[in-house]
Amino acid sequence: TIPKYKWCHYDIDVESLSWPVDWYVTDYTGYLNYKNGRGFSYYCGEAQVQGGNCGFDWIKSDKFYVLVVNNNDAKQITAEVQVNETCYTG
Asked: For the residues of 9-74, what is the DSSP string, one character each?
């Protein structure tokens, strides 16, 4: 039997291998708002950085989204995103 987890802890690391980027961790509503050009809320993130990290607990049943944003359309970016997950049953 696979245990049902009550909550999980995530550590996110983002690194741009090219130009500074904006990056954010958000939920589905935040993702939709971003995609549609509206303001959005996020759990952690930074603007115009080479890299960053954050750790957070997630108890929601829906997934989260990691947005990596290139604000300079004249240049392409390459970014690495690492997600580490530890989940708990109690």
From this structure: EEEEEEEESSS-EEEEEE-HHHHHHHHTT-----SEEEEEESEEEEEEEE--SS--EEEEE---TT
Which amino acid type is present at position 66? V
CB atoms within 10 A of CB 64: 18
Q: Is 90 helix (H, G, I), strand (E, B) or coil?
A: coil
| pTM metric for this prediction | 0.85
Instruction: Judge residue 57's burial from the number of C-beta atoms within 10 Å of its C-beta, 0-12 exposed, 13-18 middle, 19 or more buried.
Output: exposed
Question: Residue 66's closest CA among 25, 30, 9, 31?
Answer: 25
Q: Where along the chain do its domains lie?
A: 7-88
- Report pLDDT digits (tens) over 9-28: 999 999 999 999 999 999 99
> Which CA distances in Å does 22 have to 14, 30, 89, 90?
10, 15, 34, 35
